Amino acid sequence: MKALMRQVVFCAIVLPLAAPAAGAPVNYFNTLLTGTRNDHTGQVGFEFKATSSFYIESLGRAVNGGDSGTLNISHEVRLWDAVTETELGLVTVTNGSPRDGGYAHEALTAAIPISQGRNYAISTSEVGGSGDLWRDHDTISTSDYRTDLATIVRSAYSYGTDFPSFGATGSRGYVVPTFLTDPDNFDAQVGDNFFNSLYTGTRNDYTGQVGAEFEAYKDFEIRALGRAASPAVGGGKLLESHVLRLWDADTQALLGEVVVDGNSPYDASGYAQGLLPSPVSITAGQRFVISTTETSGGGDPWYAAKQDRDPLTDHLNVASVRLSAHTGSSTAFPDSRDHTGDGFGAVTFFGDLAPERQHGFNIFDDHYSGDRNNYNGRVGFAFVAQSDFVIDRLGRAVSPRYHDGELVVEHTIELWRQDGASSGVLLGSVTVGPDSPRDEMGYAFEWLDENLQLVEGQAYRLVTTEFSTGDAGDPWRDQRRVPLYDHDLIQITGTAHGGYTGFPGSDSSFGEYAFGAPTFYVTPEPGSVVLLLLGGLGLVLCRRRSRRR
C-alpha cells in the first residue's frame, strides 16, 4: 500500500457560501493538478474537512492536457461521508463531459449538502494502464484550492469500490477530483428562515447551551440550523465557533448538529447558517429543541427574550416558540425550561417552511374531542383572522369514545364577529346532529346557507351549544391547547363561552386554548356574486350558485 503513496487529482462541482461574483460557478481548485501515475486499479482521491456549509452539485476529474486533453476511459467519481464511510453521490465522467479549468465534470442527480466541520472524501475510479494519468499524493498547496470551502486532510485510496480508507495525512491527495458551485442557488436550496426578524441581544454571561423549545404546527423538513450574529460585533459575523444541535424534546434524542462561525454562510437577516448532513423531518405536533454552545465572555452576545423584553414571535406560521431551554453542559440535552414563549440564542432553522396548502379543508389538523359534559350553554374559542378567506361549513368534533362515535343530540354551531369586549354580531350558524356528514377526522358538519368571508385583522368567536347531560349526552373538550390548525389563516387567542343567547363574551384561558371544539371549513372558491358588507366590518356574504347537501 505504501507504494501507492504518491498523489492524484479529480473534480466536483459545489455550491459555496462565501462566493465570488454572483452566478459564476466555483471550482474547488484554482489550479489544474495533473500527474504521471497510471499504475493502480481502484479508488484514488482525498479526504477533506468542510470549513463552511455549501452544496456540491457536480463531481469531476482532472484531465492531463486541460480542456483540450483526452480521457481514454470513463471514470466514476464518488463523494463519501468520511464519518459514516457511506457513499453520498456518484457521477460518471467521460471524454465528452463538460470541462471547467481542465476538469471533466458531470452534475449529480441532486445537490448534496456539505456540513461545516464534517469530514468527507472524494474519489475517482482508475484502471492501471488505461493511459489516463493522475497525480501522485504529493503535497497540495493551500493556494491551489478554496480553503474557505474545505481543507484537505489526507490522501485516500482503496482497491475496489469501497470507501477509500487508506492514505497519508496532510494536505495531499490523488488524481485530483474537484467540485464546482453556483452561489446563487444556495438560498433557494437551504429554504426559508423560521424567523422573520434578527433576534440579537447583549447577554454573554453563561457557559453551556442556550436555545428554545418549539412545537410544530405542520409537517416540514429542517435543512439547516442558524444562530443570530449581532451587527454590532465583528461586522455582523460571529467571532467564535458555535455548535448548534437539534433535539427531540420528548425523547431527548439528538437529531443533528452543525457548526457555525465567521466563515459560515449568512442569510439576508444576519443568521449564520449550518447545513445538516441530511435533512431532518419534523411532524405536526412534534416538540423539538435547538441549542447553541456559548462561553461566558466569549465575544458573541446572544438574545434573552425576558431580558430583552421581546418574545420570539416574529416567525413563520409553521411552529411556535414554547419555552427557553438551557443547560450548563456543552454536550447534554438542555433540559432546563422557563419563560413561556421566550427563547435564548437566538437560534433558528431553515427549510421549505411555506408549502402551498390546498383549500377545502378543516381549519384544524387534529381531532379535538374530549370527556367533559357538565355545562349548559355555548363553548368554543376566540380567534383573529390572519388573512381574508371564505368558509362554507361549520362543524363539531365527535368523541370516538362515546356512543360508538356518534352524536346523540343536535348542537348549534355559531360564528360571531366580535365588535367589543362583550358585544358582537352573529354571522351564521348550522345545526349538526346524528345524521350530519363527517369529514375524514371525524368532525360532524353542515353547510352554511351563505358562504362567509372573514377579513384579516378582525376578531371572531366560534361556539357550539352544549347540554349538561353527563354520559347520556355528547362530551366535549375541556379548555386545552389546540396547537394544530392553519396558522396562516387564523390565530386562536383563547377560550370563549356563554349562555344560550347573546354574544358569548366570557373568557377563561388565553392563548391557543379552546373548548369543544367547534370548527369551520375553508372553501376553494369564494362563491359567486354579491358582496354585502355588514356594518362595514368583518364579513362579506358570497351567495352560492347552488346549495350542496
Explain what you see.
Strands 1, 2, 4, 7, 8 and 11 form a six-stranded antiparallel sheet that branches. The protein has two helices and 35 strands. The chain has helices at 186-190, 305-308; strands at residues 10-15, 26-27, 42-50, 54-62, 75-81, 86-93, 99-100, 103-114, 119-126, 150-158, 177-181, 192-193, 208-216, 220-228, 242-248, 254-260, 271-282, 287-294, 303-304, 319-327, 336-338, 344-345, 347-351, 377-385, 389-397, 411-420, 423-432, 443-454, 459-466, 477-481, 490-498, 513-516, 518-522, 532-533, 540-542. The chain folds into three domains: 2-185, Sandwich (Jelly Rolls); 191-351, Jelly Rolls (Sandwich), CATH 2.60.120; 377-542, Sandwich (Jelly Rolls). Helix content is 2%, strand content 43%. The model is unreliable at 1-22 and 526-549 (pLDDT under 50). The protein is mostly beta strands and 549 residues long. The protein is elongated and about 90 Å long.
Provide a concise account of the structure shown:
With 549 residues, this protein is mostly beta strands.
How is the topology of this model organized?
Blueprint: E1 10-15, E2 26-27, E3 42-50, E4 54-62, E5 75-81, E6 86-93, E7 99-100, E8 103-114, E9 119-126, E10 150-158, E11 177-181, H1 186-190, E12 192-193, E13 208-216, E14 220-228, E15 242-248, E16 254-260, E17 271-282, E18 287-294, E19 303-304, H2 305-308, E20 319-327, E21 336-338, E22 344-345, E23 347-351, E24 377-385, E25 389-397, E26 411-420, E27 423-432, E28 443-454, E29 459-466, E30 477-481, E31 490-498, E32 513-516, E33 518-522, E34 532-533, E35 540-542
Antiparallel strand pairs: 1-2, 1-4, 2-11, 3-9, 3-10, 4-8, 4-11, 5-6, 5-9, 7-8, 12-23, 13-18, 13-20, 14-17, 14-23, 15-16, 15-18, 19-22, 20-21, 24-29, 24-31, 25-28, 25-33, 26-27, 26-29, 28-35, 30-32, 34-35
